[in-house]
Design goal:
The chain is mainly α and 205 residues long. Helices cover 60% and strands 0% of the residues.
Length: 205
């Protein structure tokens, strides 16, 4: 019979470690500024008129500033939110994505577009983070450098349940006949109906 009170597994709590939000913001600003400079340089090189090399800064300054602001706001607010909540989860990405998306909308100066950019960016980034933050699926936190086959084999060995525990949850019968099943079945029938069933073997022994 199935266990009426199965033991619920207690999820392992991962201790929270605070993040340096200022340091993350500076790194994000440097990364975003570099990316913005590259984009501005490409735009400058594709110009039909000869505008000179300094146009990367004069004409592309807005692009560089936007990339720098968006990435710095995202990285800083993500770690700051995690520190305030003392949790590392998808909600941190949602908040930081909304703020960085709203930063993009600030160029328009219109509230609907600011909120729209923030909501759109938050939806995309939160979905991406919730599904693992990778195009290959959810990242594994244990032994990230272990070979995929070895990792799956280790998971099967460590998380495989004993047959006794499985039977205690799903019960026997319905084609599931563990050792001693026939004896227990005869005993239950005898106790319930008063009938003693003796199985007949095909070899006549």
């Amino acid at each position: 019979m199935a266990n009426p009170h199965p033991i619920q597994a207690i999820p392992e709590e991962i201790p929270f470690h605070s993040h340096d939000a200022v340091k993350s913001g500076i790194k994000g600003a440097l990364l975003g500024g570099t990316a913005g400079f590259v984009v501005a340089a490409v735009q400058n090189s594709l110009a039909k008129t000869n505008i000179g090399a300094w146009a990367v800064l004069t004409r592309g300054g807005g692009t560089i500033a936007m990339f720098t602001a968006v990435t710095s706001v995202y990285t800083f607010s993500k770690d700051a939110t995690a520190n305030l909540r003392e949790k590392d989860d998808t909600w941190n990405t949602t908040v930081s994505s909304f703020l960085s998306g709203a930063t993009i909308g600030l160029r328009t100066g219109r509230i609907p577009q600011i909120l729209g950019f923030g909501a759109a960016f938050a939806t995309i980034m939160s979905t991406f983070e919730y599904t693992g933050g990778s195009l290959r699926g959810r990242r594994r936190t244990e032994n990230p450098e272990m070979d995929e086959y070895e990792y799956k084999e280790a998971q099967r060995k460590t998380r495989r349940r004993p047959i006794e525990e499985t039977l205690a949850h799903i019960g026997e019968g319905r084609g599931i006949k563990p050792e001693g099943y026939e004896e227990r079945r005869r005993q239950r029938l005898k106790e319930k109906y008063g009938v003693d069933i003796n199985p007949v073997r095909a070899d006549g022994l």
